Amino acid sequence: MKKIEAIIKPFKLEEVKDALAHAGVAGMTVSEVKGYGRQQGHSELYRGAEYVVDFLPKIKIELIVADEDVEKTLTIIIEAAKTGNIGDGKIFVSPIEKIIRIRTGEQDEEAI
What we know:
Mean pLDDT: 89
Strand order of the largest sheet: 2-5-1-6
């Protein structure tokens, strides 16, 4: 099992969610986060004063998938979240050692 964490632009959330749901992904966790990468934020003007926005709003999607579904899931996220512009985001994949569904006690693949 793998944990996929995708940091995407906020306006792409619905597209990614719909594409994953269409592919049969059972569930995900979504968080509003802030951060920056190579773009290092940007400058904006507000009432004539320039200020720097260091941290940009992003969405973090977390989901757990079976090993055989990782590549398919990554492809779906990339296709749905990509704009071709700087700041499209990143995806991280990590191994999961154990999953336990609290309500039933199911473990690992059965608990996804």
